[in-house]
Specification:
It is a single chain. By secondary structure, the chain is of the alpha/beta class. It has two domains: 2-159, Rossmann fold; 174-217 and 227-283, no CATH class. Helices cover 37% and strands 15% of the residues. It contains eight helices and seven strands. It has helices at residues 2-21, 39-52, 90-101, 174-189, 194-211, 230-243, 252-262, 280-283, and strands at residues 28-32, 56-61, 106-112, 117-124, 130-135, 153-159, 221-224. The strands form two sheets. A five-stranded parallel β-sheet has the order 2-5-1-6-7, covered by helices on one side. A hairpin with a 4-residue loop joins β3 and β4 (117-124). α1 (2-21) packs across α2 and α6 runs antiparallel to α7. The protein starts with a helix and ends in a 12-residue tail after the last helix.
Length: 295
């Protein structure tokens, strides 16, 4: 367990060093990855490492750049579709990024999801040592920030590429690891049962196939958030949730399949997981979850 966590810390330090070593200063770091890949924890830990390297990271949320609800694209059911790139106010995003990089003071938006409108957020000004950390679904898509100079951008792809095998021929699918992470997290943070998460998963996967995977080759660096011990830690948390799926549910076969997968694993207490671990994003107790560097 400690070796896996140490390798994560080592890789984050390597990525931070690569960012700082660029001949042209990196001013914007774009972070993207599929659902439950650990993007948020990675972003927070990268911010800590950049601070240790003498840079000053500042997080910028793409969620605050959504168009007003009445102007947002809609899906086939007529609901606002927040997953498409066109749901973002790209003109405002690019203008504000250019102004920030030029040292101008900018008033950031804050998106109110209840009202479906933007409101005024904080007013900020960046100095040369600042780096913007932007995490979001479209971070690797070149169409997100076409007006920002390419030499000032560093793109990172975060995924959980599990290398666990049940036997010599049977590999645990990477998507299963992420799905189990999401089941545990959704139950803890959103009060969602496993059936609801399983029902949403096909739609989540379609979004990944359309908006993330085609652009992963654009990344300057890749971070693998998978840990060799994570299924052991997730097992005692996920199994009770999966057992609640009723036999008459359309999601019952999938729940039973995941339970069979977990039956091959010996459980481990979550107390053994370090508080800064990416895994804490899903099981709770993260010391980096609320870390936001100040300007």
């Amino acid at each position: 367990m400690l070796v896996g966590e140490a390798l994560h810390s080592q890789r984050i330090a390597e990525i931070a060093a690569e960012i700082c070593a660029r001949p042209e200063p990196v001013r914007v770091v774009l972070i993207a990855g599929p659902s439950s890949s650990g993007k948020t924890s990675f972003s927070r830990r990268l911010a800590v490492q950049l601070l240790a390297n003498g840079r000053r990271p500042f997080p910028l949320s793409l969620d605050d750049y959504f168009l007003p609800r009445e102007d947002s694209p809609h899906d086939m059911e007529g609901r606002p579709d927040f997953e498409v790139l066109e749901a973002l106010d790209l003109e405002l995003l690019n203008k504000q990024l250019l102004d920030l990089l030029a040292g101008k003071r900018v008033t950031l938006p804050r998106y109110d999801f209840l009202r479906g409108q933007s409101e005024l957020g904080p007013s900020i000004r960046l100095r040369r040592e600042h780096i913007l950390l932007i995490e979001g679904l479209h971070g690797l898509n070149p169409a997100l920030v076409p007006k920002v100079p390419e030499e000032s951008i560093f793109r990172i792809y975060v995924s959980a590429v599990a290398q666990l095998r049940l036997d010599r021929l049977t590999r645990v699918p990477t998507t299963d690891t992420r799905l189990i992470r999401r089941i545990v997290r959704d139950a803890r943070e959103r009060g969602s049962d496993a059936e609801m998460t399983l029902e949403q998963w096909p739609s989540v996967r379609r979004g990944e196939e359309r908006y993330i995977f085609p652009y992963q080759e654009n990344a300057d660096a890749m971070f693998n958030s998978a840990l060799p011990h994570e299924l052991a830690v997730l097992k005692p948390l996920a199994e009770p949730l999966l057992r609640q799926v009723e036999p008459d549910s359309p999601r019952y076969p999938e729940a039973r399949r995941l339970l069979r997968l977990l039956s091959w694993v010996q459980g481990a207490p979550k107390e053994l997981v370090p508080e800064e671990s990416v895994l804490r994003e899903f099981i709770g107790g993260s010391v980096v979850a609320d870390f936001i560097p100040s300007l």
